[in-house]
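[#protein-structures] MJ: dropping DUF1836 domain-containing protein here for a structure pass
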Amino acid sequence: MTIDNDDLMNSIIASLGRIDTIPLDEIPNIDLYMDQLTTFMDERLKKTTRYPETDKILTKTMINNYAKNDLLPPPVRKKYSKDHLILLIFIYYLKSILSINDIQTLIEPLKNRFHVSDDELNLSKIYETAFDLQKEELEPVIEDLKKKYKRAGETFTNLDITEDEKKRMQLFSFITLLSYDVYVKKLLIEKILDNVTKEEDEAKAKKDKSKEKKK
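AK: finished. structure tokens for DUF1836 domain-containing protein:
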């Protein structure tokens, strides 16, 4: 079967435009029980999975593990607030590229604003800002994809191979470019978080040392 890379690329770009992110005003303002929470997340984020028919968005076990790993404050009387949902949405997207420890480091400032009613900086404001940034990034991402796809299409053009094999190797080049981009950005995120952790550890050690001197 002949590979049509152009059709594949067009399909990818079209799918990006249909990513089902959740606007702030569509996150429930009422507290939800566990089953209501998982149903909401499943309905709203199912399209982001690779295999929508079988992949799980969130399960009770996942949520309980997030709480045990100090990623998520415990529910109040078995109910989860809008702030719980906001943190869970962030965790859902981050867990595909970061470790639990890195997610802990990244969202610690968000947990400090949990159930804070300050209009200047509460979790709703943080989520809304991140949502707007994501919308701004869509067009640059699409342009970057087109650039990488064009560059990949310039590879393996002078070889004595079949057209199908050439297209498969160009697809390999495209995936290599995308993979390197992901690798570099993941490495950058990890370095930033390592630096944050180092600074926090140094500040804690300095504080503990100061307390010892006062004794």
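MJ: nice. The radius of gyration is 22 Å.
AK: one more thing. The beta strands are 32-33, 79-80.
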